[in-house]
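Section 3.1: Structural characterization of target chains.
Under the original work plan, the team committed to producing a structural model for every single-chain target entering the pipeline before any wet-lab resources were allocated. The record below documents one such target. The sequence was received from the expression subgroup and is listed exactly as submitted; it comprises 151 residues.
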Amino acid sequence: MSIVKWSPVKELEEMRRDMDRLFEDFFTPARRRGWIRKPEQSVVVPNIEMFDRTDEIVVKAELPGVTKEDIDLTITKDSLTLRGEIKKEEEVKEENYYACERSFGSFTRAIALPVEVDNEKAKASFKNGVLEIVLPKREEARPKEIKIEVS
């Protein structure tokens, strides 16, 4: 390995090139940077929250821009499948965009449930773009309390 003499001028030159690249990236139009995606390039995956309420499992899914008529739920004893579609309100030509980060299209999300549920007693509600699904646990999956006698 050869020894290279350190040069502060070289360090400054590299820093100047990095700063030039940073400013060039910042001021490059969004279309060239890839900020604008075509709707067919988008992938829609609803965000979920799942938690346990002793006798039931609750799943909440964020579905902004979806109507309840566009949602389809399939529940089995150990999984939940969400299907739907986010529709685009109006057609805008690609050259008129400054940025497009929203996603449109149909989606499917399968969620494995941590315990077996009674799918016959499941309930769902939809409010302000949030779908809440309440899944009662099967009797076998519910926690049982056992009293211990002290002798």
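Helices lie at 8-27, 30-33.
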